[in-house]
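Q: What does the predicted 3D structure of DUF4595 domain-containing protein look like?
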Amino acid sequence: MKSKSILSGMSSLLHSVSFVFMTMACCACLTSCGDDDGDGGSTGGSGNLPSTGDMGITDPVVAITSPWGDVARFNYTDGALTSGVSLTDGINFTIGGKPLVIKGSANESDGESYKQTISNIRQNAAGAVTSATLTIEESGYGETYRASGNFTCTYDSGNRLIKMVSESSSPEYSYEAVYTNTWHDGNLIKTVMTYTEKETEEGETYEYNGYEEYNFEYDGVKNNGIYVRFMDDSVPEYILYAGLMGKPSEDMISAYSVKYSKDSQPNSVTCSTDKDSKGRVSAYYENGSLQYSFYYSDTVSQMQQQGSAAKRTHARRMFKTHAEK
C-alpha cells in the first residue's frame, strides 16, 4: 500500500463529509447546559431540539460576520435554532421535523450546487446527537459526486462530548477519524484527532494517515454562548449553535496550540475578545487579528454589509485537493 498526500476531487468531497462534524470535537463555547445524563434516554430521532435556554444562553446570536465577507444568519422558533444561512459558503439550512432531519443546500453563480442531509439521528436525553447518517451530493463542471457517512458520539455524565468516530466512503475512497476530548473544570483543554484516508486508483490503493492535537487555555472570561471554530471552515456552525453536540466549555479560550504529529513542535495562538455594553462577546481575535463579529437581536442592525470582493476560498468544495488545505 502506497502513501499519497494529494487526493482527488472525490476524496476531498468525502473528506468534508467527516469534517462536517469534526470541530464539534474541538470547539469552545462559553455557555453551559444542564447536567443531563450523557448517553441515557435516546429519543431515536424524535425531533428533540435543545433550546437556547437549555444551554444557558440568555442572548442567542442571530448573525456572525468575518473580515472575508462571510455572513451567517440564525432564525429561532420557541428558543430553538431552526433555520438560517451558514457562515461558510452560504448554505441555506433547516433543522426540525419528527423524526429530526437537518438539510442544507447552496447554489453558486457558476452553476455548482451542493446538498447535504443529516438523518437517522439519535439523541440523548439532553438532545445531543449520539449517532446520525450524512449524505452529500455536489454538482459542477458537468460532474456529480455523491458521498455518504456516519458518526457516533459519546458523552460524559455532564453531557460533554468525550469521543466521536466519523466514517465516510465511496466506491473509490474511505475516511475514518477518531476524536478524543479531555475536559477540566467545565472546559475543553485537549482534543486529539487521528484519521486515515484510503483511495483506490487504477487498481492501486493509497493511504494517508494524519494526526492533529489541540491544547486550549483559559483565563476565566465567561461568555454568553459563542462557539469558536478552529480546524476547518467547512464545518457548519449551525449544528453547534443548535446545541446538538452536548455541553460546551464554560469559558472563553485565551490561547491554544496545535501540532500535526506527536513529536512536532506546537504552533501557538493567542486569543482575545471584545464585549458589548451588556457583557456579551461582540468580536473574537487570534493573534490580534479579527476572526468573527457577533450580533444579537438588539444589535443586528449595526451589522455592516460585507463586500463580495473578499470572498474566502471555499474549503468544502470537491475540486479542492488535500494539499491545498
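A (community wiki): The C-alpha cells above were generated from the sequence. The first helix runs from residue 9 to 22. Helices lie at 9-22, 237-241.
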